Amino acid sequence: MATISLRKANTRLPPEVNRVLYVRNLPFNISSEEMYDIFGKYGAIRQIRIGTNKDTRGTAFVVYEDIYDAKTAVDHLSGFNVANRYLIVLYYQQAKMAKKSDTKKKEEEITRLQEKYGISTSKDK
Fold first, then answer.
1. What range does the record give for the signal peptide (predicted)?
2. In 9-89, which ranges are continuous DSSP H helix?
3. What gap in Å lies between CA 91 and CA 77, rounded to an integer?
């Protein structure tokens, strides 16, 4: 298999490669069994978390036991068609996710301060 040859060659993986995958553009009604069927073909899975609330529907996190299995899954499943939707499979990057939440918090803080001190922005005029 391809994963065995990767391990034997002692291939150096890029720094963004890790065992945790972030999957977007999933059908909202996909079950965890279907996720295990799709992603389990590429190696042992430790955990799958499917988004259920309004903000996270259509997304999931898939955690593999082995980093090479995760790499193989990304290589094969990016663009894979599930229920007429093409999957977007990325390596989870905690720094990028933290930046998004920090930006949102900062925007909320700015809005709150503007309301508190009665400052209007050029958009409001």
1. none
2. 32-39, 67-77
3. 12
- Please, what sign has the CA dihedral across residues 12, 13, 16, 21? negative
Q: H or E element: which one contains 97?
A: helix 94-117
Residues 52, 31: contact at Cβ < 8 Å? no
DSSP code of residue 11: P
The pair of structure tokens assigned to 29 is 């009604």
* Total residue count of the chain as it appears in this document: 125
Q: What is the pLDDT of residues 14-54, one digit of tens each?
A: 777 899 999 999 999 999 999 999 999 999 999 999 999 98
Q: How far apart are CA 116 and CA 114, in angstroms?
A: 5
